[in-house]
Amino acid sequence: MPWFHGKISGPEAVGKLQPAEDGLFLVRESIRHPGDYVLCVSTSGEVMHYRVIYKDNKLTIDHIQYFYNLIDMIEYRLCLSPPAGWLLDISKLTLGENIGEGEFGAVYQGEYLGQRVAVKTIKCDVTAQAFMQETAVMTKLQHKNLVRLLGVILHKGLHIVTELMSKGNLVNFLRTRGRSVVNSVQLLRFALDVCEGMEYLESKKLVHRDLAARNILVSDDYLAKVSDFGLTKLDSKVSDSIKLPVKWTAPEALKKEKFSTKSDVWSYGVLLWEIFSYGRLPYPKMSLKEVKEKVDGGYRMEAPDDCPPGVYALMTSCWEQEPRRRPTFHKVREKLEREMGKHSPGPGSELRDRIGSGSGS
């Protein structure tokens, strides 16, 4: 389990929980009492150490309160101290209708302190801990092309609260509107929006690892924003338990589980293909096994119908086999801006207005 750190000392545990953001935790085996386990939780700038007692299939640290899982135990400990800025108060949240199923649980529409929000629920301890480790970082990330994380709520699992993106994900947005509503300049705008969000993550040395049109959300005013960057890591290795999205994952990430900004650039090339094919599934009619074998052998997807040659050239540069030969997101943005200059619309044809008038919601 990612939160289990084996037989380490108290000071070592404190070192691993730096910077000491509220809610970070780990479990270690006690050096002083071999066979016993210690829960170390960061609260109000300090790391507290609690001996975990396992009894009758339940966990306790005081023989008063008993818990069925670690996340509930963490919630209890954190509620004893004032919540940090990113730890939100469940009493101020109103949950509305279910608006979708995410990879780790249901997603609901809701309201928090008068703001419309989306709430992702995560029941699994391991996944919840992985998200909690990253949440403190995510709340500090602010960019117009990243979905804003407002904070988390610990209550019977983990609830991740973000701004609500009313137009849904980019795949469905493009599929349900098509060429009659969205023209190539608007496609370029979406591509540029995503690139700017990724350039910002690149500047922070953060890696997305699952960049795809399904993880791009569209706002009320037709701005595309990158979402689900909650498991971002720098030069990270992914655990075997996470299934990789083969059609979007760079060859070196599939083979060596090596993720970097350059593997994100590969995924961005596939996302560009999705945008300019109006939401088609990449590598049409090919099995995952075929995709792996053919891509390794040098195969690359053909340009989508009516795709500008400059955009297709950009896609193929993102799909260089050698990661170092792929452009940075900064370079990609410069090329897209040049492409946008070639396709700029005439006066009075603001495309975001046209999409709004041509498609309802």
CATH superfamily (homologous) name of the largest domain: Transferase(Phosphotransferase) domain 1
Secondary-structure content class: alpha+beta
Order of helices and strands: HEEEEHEEEHEEHHEEHHHHHH
- Please give the number of β-strands: 11
Range of strand content = 15-25%
Q: Distance N terminus to C terminus? A: 42 Å
CATH architecture of the largest domain: Orthogonal Bundle
Number of domains: 3
Q: What would CATH call the class of the largest domain?
A: Mainly Alpha
Instruction: Outline the biggest β-sheet.
Output: 5 strands, antiparallel
3D structure, described in words:
This is Tyrosine-protein kinase. Its main location: cytoplasm. The chain is of the alpha+beta class and about 350 residues long. The chain folds into three domains: about 10-75, SHC Adaptor Protein; about 90-165, Phosphorylase Kinase, domain 1 (2-Layer Sandwich), CATH 3.30.200; about 170-360, Transferase(Phosphotransferase) domain 1 (Transferase(Phosphotransferase), domain 1), CATH 1.10.510.10. It is built from eleven helices and eleven strands. The chain has helices at about 10-15, 70-80, 125-140, 170-175, 185-205, 250-255, 260-275, 290-295, 310-320, 330-340, 350-360, and strands spanning about 25-30, 35-45, 45-55, 60, 95-100, 105-110, 115-120, 150-155, 160-165, 215-220, 225. The protein has a five-stranded antiparallel β-sheet. A four-stranded antiparallel β-sheet has the order 1-2-3-4, with helices on both faces. The protein has a two-stranded antiparallel ribbon with strand order 10-11. A hairpin with a 2-residue loop joins strand 3 and strand 4. The longest helix has 20 residues, at about 185-205. The chain is globular and about 70 Å long. The two termini are about 40 Å apart. Mean pLDDT is about 85; it is low at about 235-240, about 345-350 and about 355-360.
